[in-house]
Structure prediction request, 648 residues.
Amino acid sequence: MPSKETVRRQRALGGAVGVVVLGMALVYHFFPRVFHVEPSTIAAKRAMNLSPLPSAVPGQGASPAPRLAEVDAGPPLTLAPTEVIVARLGHKNENLPEQLSADTPEVEALLARAAKALHAGQLAGDENSAAALYEQALKDKPDSRRAAQGLFEVRARLVAEINQDLAVGDADSAGDLLDALKTIPDSSDDVTQLQGKLKILNQARPLLAKAASLLQQGNVDQPAGNNALELYRQVQQLDPDNAVAQQGILQVQRAVLDRALAAVAQNDFKGADQALAEAAQVLPDSPALHDVRTRVDGMRQGRANGILAQARSALDAGNLTLAQQLADQAKAISPDLVGLADFNERLTNARLYASYKPGQVFTDHFVDMPGQTPAMVVVPTGSFQMGAPDNEAGRQDAETPQHEVAIAKGFALSRSAITVGQFRDFVRASGYQPDSVKLGGASVYDEGTGAMRDDGSASWQDDYAGKQADSRLPVVNISWNDAKAYADWLSQRTGKAYRLPSEAEFEYALRGGTSSRYWWGDGAPTSKVENLTGGQDRSPSGRRWSNAFPGYRDGYWGPAPVMSFAANPFGLYDIGGNVSEWVQDCWHDSYLRAPRDGSAWVNPGCGVRVVRGGSWGSSPEQVRSAYRQGADASVRSGRVGFRVLREL
Prediction:
């Protein structure tokens, strides 16, 4: 027989387990989405009675209709049957009497009635309850092990029932069951522990319910005296480890951080700073606060640089008043912004360059036939450092020396690469015969080997793998000559100057005002920005990239339909991924003697042209904004397409 100290330790352990179960149940009850459960899918709270779920008794009817608690602080909770909870809590009765003789027929009859009452859920409360019958059996035969075990089972089930009611916040039912538990012998420790829990529940539950209501109303931290944050703080004073209050405070901070992001979206950086300061008072060192603060700082710099870029465009357009206003806005956002001093010096030398505004999207209509050009977006003028800095990872000699290039003349680029459908319109209207047809074939992807291979039957109408292409895909398997022919055709149809972009113009547009390794930053993207080689992408047969952006997945193996991902800061889609693109320039091994005004570097009769931008099959090093490669002008590849430029 175990000592009293052993029994006391067992009861303490059971109580600790009960606290853990209660805490998890409260989190599940008030915030079911923490466990990925939608509130609408949770069954109504079980009825408050003295019975376990009677699923284990054959021939019995359905469970009684559920009764909700009077004050609902969250979605209802479905709990396991009490038999399961009792088993999980590991209750054992090691203090059974040593039975000296068999139970008498009268005791046997009492035990049978008690067992039936136990299974029927009649645990305590009247003379026909399981507790009363077991106690009577023990009175008639004090050494009956079955009676002692049965009474212990009644107590364990009552404790489980009370814990269930405490978990779902039903204080009335828990109180009624506690009264019943008090009548059971050897229940004083359990009663004391559960009374403590009930007291905390009665104090915390209405506060949590009101806090949840205030959250839904938007009163997260204001007004003073009537907001969710203050109520959650009160609950934490009552119960420092209350998981519901902890989660509620996280939700409060998220709402305040959303205010900061909303302010940034409205270009209200002062309001964003105020919201960040308020969020820091809620939880000063939370990961969410650090993340949003970093994002706001990045948006601040990006916005200031963007406004300064607009100011430069206004300057180039001859609108001195607007240029000054934009410069003042950029300074207000970021007083130490690099480039402001240079801009003020250039302000006196402003000149008109075009009637369009940076970022404006337009199309030109054909003058001699029905039709129009692809959508074009105006790229702001400015200057940038072309090439890779000395410390950039993956830097190649062909990307050096890094040098400043000034884009003084406005231009517009097609928002995306030219599609199969757009190129088909050109072929049908002009009768042009692309090189993939005239010369025969292209280099396409082979799923069997995981590499590119020459296919004599592949043409511009096929996709990257040599199969018929959807009209929305970027056209591939075309040569530099094909790309130039399309741009020349647009010029003829519109009377405007269309051409392939120069290498400098392309890199300038690709960077979008940034100087980082990629237009979205220096590392692997954290959102779907381009169609790239992702470490989590898989080919149709399950192949994976040997050199890819870790943790990235865009869902495509091969080109995606144009504009499926995010635009860069200049409003251009797929410029850093999807397909690489032909530009005007001839290939040179470095930037020595390269033009610094953005014009193309062309040698008469050159046969090797430049390809810029990453593709669906490019390694991370080949997606860098500074990366460049040369290819014979006749090359047709499932990884290379093009876009067009319109001079302004």
User: Anything to note?
Assistant: Residues 36 and 445 are 40 Å apart (CA to CA). Residues 17-22, 25-78, 348-354 have pLDDT under 50 and may be disordered.
